[in-house]
TrEMBL record:
Top-rank taxon: Bacteria
Protein name per UniProt: Tail assembly chaperone
InterPro entries given in the database record: Gp24/Gp25
Organism name: Nonomuraea aridisoli
Amino acid sequence: MPKVTLADIKAAADRKYGPFVVELPDGEVQLQSLLRLPSKKRKDLLAKADELKNMAEMMKDQPDLDLAEVLEDVLRVVAPSKAAADRLFKACDHDAAVLMEVFLGYMEAAQPGEAQPSES
């Protein structure tokens, strides 16, 4: 039976579930992987993502709703710090369309891969 070290397993997890990195003019911001978030933050993120699904309804009820602010609230959960989140939002010029692309890219990268068929 093959042997594997814990270090090998951790390295594989880092490759597969590492952070979503956004390159900024002044460096980078690493958004934490969904699977690597503490459970409370993961629940917060998933609840906020559900709110985004209902954004059209929310905008009907609250026409003054700032979509950029809502997206920033969501992305702040996965940013490593308030300062890093603020750098990201400033670099995006608080533009809702740009922030939505960051969020969608993050969510796509955060999806666990599909199981590979066995070779039996």
